[in-house]
Amino acid sequence: MSITTEFFRHPMLTGAIAASSASLATAMTRGLGLEGAGSVVELGPGTGVFTSAVLSLLPSSASFTAIEINPRLASALRSRFPSVSVVCGSACSVGSLSVAPPDVVISGLPWTAMPSSRQQEILDSVCSVLSPRGCFTTFAYAHTAWTPPARHFARLLRSRFFVVERTPVVWRNLPPAYVYRAALPVSAGISRERAAAPAS
Q: The Methyltransferase domain covers which part of the protein (predicted)?
């Protein structure tokens, strides 16, 4: 199934006009500790480019849940990835999932296409379920970096995580994009001093 077809069929449900590249998928999954993760949640998997990259690293014993709002894409994901629990619904529902606190939440959501209130709602839901030393990773298109929605989202990330990193631009993607990696959610109640200390 083509993400481009779904964009034109349901533009309010599908935020990307082209599927993410393998290069972006590699950048999204690098350095997250997926090899040792026990629980992973993906938001907005689309056609499964990031899903496939996660599965290539994840232990077979780990739980993997994906939330996709587009029913056709959700159905295709279930067929393609039978080991993944695919939920058809809004990313805001991540807080109601009956899963262990995820070690990693990976997102392909179109943040700059959302109102600021929806950005905040989803990010707060992510922080409410993420394990205390878990990691949240997402991406943004480089050409939107200075738009108000993109700048608002960057501020939200930095207000909700002690650690936020941005990668160099991944040029081998259409459009070029960069990746955010955020760790140590403020809501977990870990002080900045403890957050800076290595895990024992």
A: 40-134
Q: What is the pLDDT of residues 53-99, one digit of tens each?
A: 999 999 999 999 999 999 999 999 999 999 999 999 999 999 999 89
Angle, CA 136 vertex, CA 131 and CA 142 arms, to 5°: 170
Distance between CA 55 and CA 68 in Å, rounded? 17
Residue 200 domain flag: no
pLDDT digits (tens, 9 = 90+) for 132-184: 999 999 999 999 999 999 999 999 999 999 999 999 999 999 999 999 999 99
Model pTM score: 0.87
Q: Please give the residue that has the higher pLDDT: either 138 or 5.
A: 138
Residue 163's φ and ψ, nearest 5 degrees, are -120, 120
Domain that holds residue 91: 3-195
> 40 lies in a domain?
yes
Please provide the distance, in angstroms rounded to a whole number, between the alpha carbons at the two ends of the chain. 45
Which domain CATH number covers 32?
3.40.50.150
Separation between Cα atoms, residue 103 and residue 118, nearest integer Å: 23
175 occurs within a structural domain: yes
Q: DSSP E strands: which ranges in the chain?
A: 39-43, 63-68, 85-88, 104-107, 135-141, 161-166, 177-185
